């Protein structure tokens, strides 16, 4: 008996033909299961893994949250300073001093 080297795609010629055809990639239904970049876990992970993933997610969220607040505060201070420079005084109208009241002026 002669042994033959088999290509893994040659076990199922229908699948190998569909995957090699680039025109099927644009179609909405190709008859195959979708290929995910990060496929879901086959089983539920253990508690330690879930705890580590949860801690990582909290750290990431906290970092993004603090960066967003820092950016917002920096932008607010920058725009306030820019307004002060352009106007030459306090740009907030609620903080302006009232002009002296003149009873003769109507």
UniProtKB/TrEMBL annotation:
Polar residues bias spans: 1-15
Keywords, sorted A to Z: Membrane, Transmembrane, Transmembrane helix
Name by which UniProt lists this protein: Uncharacterized protein
Organism annotation: Macleaya cordata (Five-seeded plume-poppy)
Transmembrane segments: 64-86
Region described as Disordered: spans on this chain: 1-47
Ranges of Low complexity composition bias in the record: 16-30
